[in-house]
Amino acid sequence: MWKEVRLLLRGTYRIISGLNGFAYDFKRFLFYGGWRENLSDMEIRNYNTVMAYHGLEKSLSFKNRNPTSGWGNAERVFLRLKIAKMAGDYGYHDKAAKQVLMKFLSLPENIELEKSRKMILEMNSMEFDSDDVHGAILYPLSNYKMGILKHPEDFFLSRYSLREFREDIVPQEQIKRALKLAMKTPSVCNRQAWHVFHSNDSSIIKKALSYQNGNRPFGDKIPNLMIVTTDLKAFFAGSEHYQHWIDGGLLSMSIMYALHSLGIASCPLNWSQTPKRDKQLRKAINISPNQTVIMMIAAGYPKDVNKVCSSTRRPLEEIFSNIELK
Ligand SMILES: Cc1cc2nc3c(=O)[nH]c(=O)nc-3n(C[C@H](O)[C@H](O)[C@H](O)COP(=O)(O)O)c2cc1C
């Protein structure tokens, strides 16, 4: 009888704390989400612009494109470029957008149109350009083949979460190299709404980990710590209310694989925390309020001899089935 009451109370508590978490997330979406589409905010405009110019990039990349398509996105990009020009404040995606729109307007089917000429004229007076190549690029099969691993099992099955590292700190250049690799992670419309905070300062790491509940008893010996966040400003539609978790989770996994490819071990550290804990971390660490904390990642070099949890995987049959119509 008491056991049942205890279970019921525990379940009720969990539902209430879940509701508290949903309410907190909703409040953050309301305050910091990009749903207002305030295009005079440079960051919101950039996330919003990439949605439009990425549509054009897709249109440019199809072999048999409809020659009349893409104008909706072209006009959206053009409006945002005009706002960037007026603000005199441009981000990466503003510059990329200008190049993509220029390529779209220069297509044989568009270049002679009056509206294209007007847009190009105005864009020529915009004093910002990107150094990267945007739009659609030819990508030969040989480049795809460069990604084929001789022994993929060696790479994937040799990554383990490591919790006890060598004492020496991983140099920041190595961390940055891993992050550059990890940034090839796909993100919704290529918005890349990520931020990674990094420290190798033991007092800062100690402070950050004091709010995290999965680092005992190894937290005090972690050489490098990252906090992965995603920017709520990048998400506009109500249906995108979970997108920041997805994009941030994908980046986090890429970071761990990138570290692994460089001989650096890591351990993901969960941030499934209560609103109270999340607020406490934000009080102690400088994280702008529009950034959602996805997780922390501990990193360091493996020792000569390491002991890890075997953490074996379920049989594939338990997680695999064919897609079937009902
Ligand atoms: C989102 C996430 C949060 C995690 N949080 C913790 C944590 O707080 N502490 C910890 O020791 N391990 C944590 N882990 C590591 C898991 O326990 C580990 O990935 C799992 O057992 C599989 O083992 P493997 O990574 O060695 O393959 C976390 C993993 C993930 C993906």
From TrEMBL:
The keyword Flavoprotein applies. Belongs to the nitroreductase family. It comes from Maribacter arenosus. Its cofactor is FMN. Residues 158-206 form the Nitroreductase domain. InterPro entries: Nitroreductase, Nitroreductase-like. It holds the Pfam family Nitroreductase. This is Nitroreductase family protein. Keywords: Flavoprotein, FMN, Oxidoreductase. It comes from the Bacteria.
